[in-house]
Amino acid sequence: MIQMYHVTKSYPGGVEALVDITLHVPRGEFVFLTGASGAGKTTLLKLLFCAEPPTRGQILLNGRNAARLRRAAIPLLRRQIGMVFQDFRLLPRRSVFENVALALEVMGLPRREIRRRASEALAWVGLEARQAQPAIRTSGGEQQRTAIARALVNEPYLLLADEPTGNLDPDISLEVMELFKRVNARGTTVLVATHNRDLVTRYPFRTVALEKGRLLA
Ligand SMILES: Nc1ncnc2c1ncn2[C@@H]1O[C@H](COP(=O)(O)OP(=O)(O)OP(=O)(O)O)[C@@H](O)[C@H]1O
Ligand SMILES: [Mg+2]
User: Alpha-carbon torsion 76, 206, 10, 56, what sign?
Assistant: First the structure.
Protein backbone atom coordinates (compact mmCIF):
# COMPACT_ATOMS: atom_id res chain seq x y z
CA MET A 1 0.00 0.00 0.00
CA ILE A 2 2.33 2.78 1.25
CA GLN A 3 6.02 1.93 1.07
CA MET A 4 8.59 4.63 1.73
CA TYR A 5 12.27 3.74 1.51
CA HIS A 6 14.97 6.10 2.83
CA VAL A 7 12.97 9.16 1.89
CA THR A 8 14.57 12.54 2.46
CA LYS A 9 12.97 15.87 1.68
CA SER A 10 14.96 19.08 1.60
CA TYR A 11 13.23 22.33 0.77
CA PRO A 12 14.97 25.08 -1.17
CA GLY A 13 17.03 26.97 1.37
CA GLY A 14 18.31 23.76 2.92
CA VAL A 15 15.64 22.84 5.47
CA GLU A 16 15.67 19.05 5.87
CA ALA A 17 11.98 18.45 6.56
CA LEU A 18 12.27 14.64 6.37
CA VAL A 19 15.41 12.57 6.88
CA ASP A 20 15.80 8.93 5.82
CA ILE A 21 12.19 7.86 6.38
CA THR A 22 11.41 4.19 5.86
CA LEU A 23 7.78 3.44 6.55
CA HIS A 24 5.31 0.76 5.49
CA VAL A 25 1.57 1.06 5.90
CA PRO A 26 -0.36 -2.04 4.84
CA ARG A 27 -3.73 -1.80 3.13
CA GLY A 28 -6.61 -1.17 5.51
CA GLU A 29 -4.52 0.12 8.40
CA PHE A 30 -5.33 3.22 10.47
CA VAL A 31 -2.22 5.16 11.45
CA PHE A 32 -1.64 8.32 13.45
CA LEU A 33 1.27 10.51 12.42
CA THR A 34 2.41 12.62 15.37
CA GLY A 35 5.15 15.08 16.13
CA ALA A 36 5.72 18.64 17.27
CA SER A 37 5.18 21.62 15.02
CA GLY A 38 7.78 21.52 12.26
CA ALA A 39 8.46 17.80 12.68
CA GLY A 40 7.54 17.10 9.07
CA LYS A 41 3.98 15.74 9.25
CA THR A 42 2.52 17.93 6.51
CA THR A 43 5.58 17.34 4.34
CA LEU A 44 5.13 13.57 4.62
CA LEU A 45 1.46 13.82 3.60
CA LYS A 46 2.38 16.12 0.70
CA LEU A 47 4.86 13.57 -0.60
CA LEU A 48 2.21 10.85 -0.46
CA PHE A 49 -0.25 13.13 -2.26
CA CYS A 50 2.42 13.88 -4.89
CA ALA A 51 2.20 17.56 -4.08
CA GLU A 52 5.97 17.61 -3.50
CA PRO A 53 8.63 15.27 -4.90
CA PRO A 54 11.03 13.56 -2.49
CA THR A 55 14.64 14.75 -2.69
CA ARG A 56 15.94 11.21 -2.25
CA GLY A 57 14.45 7.79 -1.68
CA GLN A 58 11.53 5.85 -3.05
CA ILE A 59 7.80 6.07 -2.48
CA LEU A 60 5.58 3.27 -3.71
CA LEU A 61 1.82 3.70 -3.66
CA ASN A 62 0.06 0.45 -4.50
CA GLY A 63 3.35 -0.68 -5.96
CA ARG A 64 3.74 2.33 -8.25
CA ASN A 65 6.72 4.59 -7.87
CA ALA A 66 5.25 7.96 -6.96
CA ALA A 67 8.51 9.80 -7.50
CA ARG A 68 8.87 8.64 -11.09
CA LEU A 69 5.39 9.45 -12.32
CA ARG A 70 5.03 11.48 -15.44
CA ARG A 71 3.39 14.81 -14.73
CA ALA A 72 0.28 13.75 -16.63
CA ALA A 73 -0.16 10.71 -14.39
CA ILE A 74 -0.36 12.69 -11.15
CA PRO A 75 -4.02 13.80 -11.35
CA LEU A 76 -5.08 10.21 -11.88
CA LEU A 77 -3.09 9.03 -8.88
CA ARG A 78 -4.48 11.84 -6.73
CA ARG A 79 -8.02 10.88 -7.63
CA GLN A 80 -7.44 7.61 -5.83
CA ILE A 81 -6.23 9.40 -2.72
CA GLY A 82 -8.46 11.54 -0.53
CA MET A 83 -6.82 14.51 1.18
CA VAL A 84 -8.33 16.54 4.00
CA PHE A 85 -6.50 19.79 4.68
CA GLN A 86 -6.32 21.48 8.05
CA ASP A 87 -7.78 24.68 6.63
CA PHE A 88 -10.48 22.75 4.71
CA ARG A 89 -9.80 24.59 1.40
CA LEU A 90 -13.44 24.87 0.44
CA LEU A 91 -14.79 27.33 -2.09
CA PRO A 92 -16.52 29.65 0.39
CA ARG A 93 -19.30 30.97 -1.82
CA ARG A 94 -20.12 27.66 -3.44
CA SER A 95 -22.67 25.45 -1.75
CA VAL A 96 -21.75 22.44 0.34
CA PHE A 97 -23.09 20.27 -2.50
CA GLU A 98 -21.05 22.08 -5.18
CA ASN A 99 -17.86 21.76 -3.17
CA VAL A 100 -18.27 18.00 -3.21
CA ALA A 101 -19.62 17.76 -6.76
CA LEU A 102 -16.69 19.74 -8.20
CA ALA A 103 -14.34 16.88 -7.39
CA LEU A 104 -16.43 14.75 -9.76
CA GLU A 105 -17.03 17.39 -12.44
CA VAL A 106 -13.32 17.59 -13.19
CA MET A 107 -13.56 13.91 -14.11
CA GLY A 108 -16.26 14.64 -16.66
CA LEU A 109 -18.85 12.27 -15.20
CA PRO A 110 -22.47 12.50 -16.36
CA ARG A 111 -24.56 14.98 -14.37
CA ARG A 112 -26.84 12.32 -12.87
CA GLU A 113 -23.90 10.26 -11.72
CA ILE A 114 -22.35 13.35 -10.10
CA ARG A 115 -25.60 14.13 -8.30
CA ARG A 116 -25.97 10.57 -7.05
CA ARG A 117 -22.41 10.23 -5.80
CA ALA A 118 -22.21 13.69 -4.18
CA SER A 119 -25.54 13.15 -2.41
CA GLU A 120 -24.37 9.79 -1.18
CA ALA A 121 -21.11 11.24 0.21
CA LEU A 122 -22.99 14.09 1.91
CA ALA A 123 -25.49 11.69 3.44
CA TRP A 124 -22.60 9.63 4.66
CA VAL A 125 -21.16 12.54 6.66
CA GLY A 126 -24.64 13.63 7.79
CA LEU A 127 -24.87 16.84 5.79
CA GLU A 128 -27.94 16.25 3.59
CA ALA A 129 -29.81 19.06 5.29
CA ARG A 130 -27.03 21.60 4.73
CA GLN A 131 -26.15 20.85 1.13
CA ALA A 132 -27.66 23.96 -0.44
CA GLN A 133 -25.94 26.28 2.05
CA PRO A 134 -22.88 28.28 0.91
CA ALA A 135 -19.88 26.65 2.60
CA ILE A 136 -18.93 29.88 4.30
CA ARG A 137 -22.25 29.93 6.12
CA THR A 138 -21.74 26.59 7.82
CA SER A 139 -20.03 25.80 11.10
CA GLY A 140 -16.40 24.69 11.40
CA GLY A 141 -17.46 21.10 12.02
CA GLU A 142 -19.76 21.19 8.99
CA GLN A 143 -16.98 22.63 6.84
CA GLN A 144 -14.71 19.85 7.99
CA ARG A 145 -17.35 17.24 7.15
CA THR A 146 -17.81 18.86 3.72
CA ALA A 147 -14.06 18.56 3.18
CA ILE A 148 -14.23 14.91 4.24
CA ALA A 149 -17.15 14.21 1.88
CA ARG A 150 -15.15 15.81 -0.94
CA ALA A 151 -12.14 13.66 -0.10
CA LEU A 152 -14.27 10.51 -0.10
CA VAL A 153 -16.48 11.11 -3.10
CA ASN A 154 -14.08 9.33 -5.46
CA GLU A 155 -13.92 6.33 -3.11
CA PRO A 156 -10.18 6.58 -2.56
CA TYR A 157 -8.18 3.61 -1.33
CA LEU A 158 -6.16 5.98 0.85
CA LEU A 159 -7.36 8.88 3.00
CA LEU A 160 -4.81 11.43 4.22
CA ALA A 161 -5.89 13.97 6.83
CA ASP A 162 -3.70 16.82 8.03
CA GLU A 163 -4.56 17.95 11.55
CA PRO A 164 -8.24 17.34 10.82
CA THR A 165 -9.39 18.30 14.30
CA GLY A 166 -7.03 21.23 14.78
CA ASN A 167 -9.72 23.87 14.56
CA LEU A 168 -12.56 21.95 16.15
CA ASP A 169 -13.74 21.66 19.72
CA PRO A 170 -13.32 18.28 21.48
CA ASP A 171 -16.84 16.91 20.88
CA ILE A 172 -16.71 17.68 17.18
CA SER A 173 -13.18 16.26 16.99
CA LEU A 174 -14.49 12.94 18.26
CA GLU A 175 -17.28 12.97 15.69
CA VAL A 176 -14.73 13.51 12.95
CA MET A 177 -12.63 10.65 14.32
CA GLU A 178 -15.70 8.40 14.33
CA LEU A 179 -16.18 9.25 10.65
CA PHE A 180 -12.59 8.27 9.90
CA LYS A 181 -13.09 5.03 11.79
CA ARG A 182 -16.10 4.26 9.62
CA VAL A 183 -14.12 5.07 6.47
CA ASN A 184 -11.42 2.72 7.70
CA ALA A 185 -13.99 0.00 8.47
CA ARG A 186 -14.98 0.08 4.77
CA GLY A 187 -11.42 -0.91 3.92
CA THR A 188 -9.85 2.48 3.22
CA THR A 189 -6.35 3.00 4.57
CA VAL A 190 -6.31 6.11 6.80
CA LEU A 191 -3.37 8.28 7.81
CA VAL A 192 -4.12 11.09 10.24
CA ALA A 193 -1.48 13.68 11.16
CA THR A 194 -2.13 15.31 14.51
CA HIS A 195 -0.44 16.66 17.57
CA ASN A 196 -3.56 16.08 19.66
CA ARG A 197 -2.36 13.64 22.33
CA ASP A 198 -5.85 13.01 23.73
CA LEU A 199 -6.98 11.79 20.36
CA VAL A 200 -4.00 9.50 19.90
CA THR A 201 -4.31 7.88 23.32
CA ARG A 202 -8.07 7.40 22.98
CA TYR A 203 -7.74 5.08 19.96
CA PRO A 204 -5.77 1.85 19.68
CA PHE A 205 -4.25 2.63 16.27
CA ARG A 206 -0.58 2.49 15.42
CA THR A 207 1.23 5.76 16.03
CA VAL A 208 4.16 6.84 13.92
CA ALA A 209 6.12 9.66 15.55
CA LEU A 210 8.32 12.19 13.80
CA GLU A 211 10.92 14.33 15.49
CA LYS A 212 12.77 16.95 13.48
CA GLY A 213 12.10 15.02 10.32
CA ARG A 214 13.20 11.64 11.67
CA LEU A 215 11.08 8.65 12.56
CA LEU A 216 11.15 7.63 16.19
CA ALA A 217 11.13 3.90 16.82
N1 LIG B 1 7.53 25.06 1.33
C2 LIG B 1 8.50 25.05 2.27
N3 LIG B 1 9.68 25.65 2.04
C4 LIG B 1 10.67 25.64 2.96
N5 LIG B 1 10.57 25.02 4.14
C6 LIG B 1 9.42 24.40 4.43
C7 LIG B 1 8.32 24.38 3.52
N8 LIG B 1 7.31 23.68 4.08
C9 LIG B 1 7.75 23.29 5.29
N10 LIG B 1 9.01 23.71 5.52
C11 LIG B 1 9.84 23.41 6.70
O12 LIG B 1 9.93 22.02 6.83
C13 LIG B 1 9.83 21.61 8.19
C14 LIG B 1 8.65 20.65 8.35
O15 LIG B 1 7.45 21.35 8.10
P16 LIG B 1 6.02 20.65 8.12
O17 LIG B 1 5.03 21.65 7.65
O18 LIG B 1 6.10 19.38 7.37
O19 LIG B 1 5.84 20.34 9.68
P20 LIG B 1 4.54 19.86 10.49
O21 LIG B 1 4.96 18.69 11.32
O22 LIG B 1 3.40 19.67 9.57
O23 LIG B 1 4.28 21.11 11.46
P24 LIG B 1 2.87 21.68 12.03
O25 LIG B 1 2.48 20.78 13.18
O26 LIG B 1 3.24 23.06 12.50
O27 LIG B 1 1.88 21.69 10.92
C28 LIG B 1 9.70 22.89 8.98
O29 LIG B 1 10.99 23.26 9.43
C30 LIG B 1 9.19 23.89 7.98
O31 LIG B 1 9.60 25.19 8.31
MG1 LIG C 1 1.57 20.58 9.37
Answer: negative
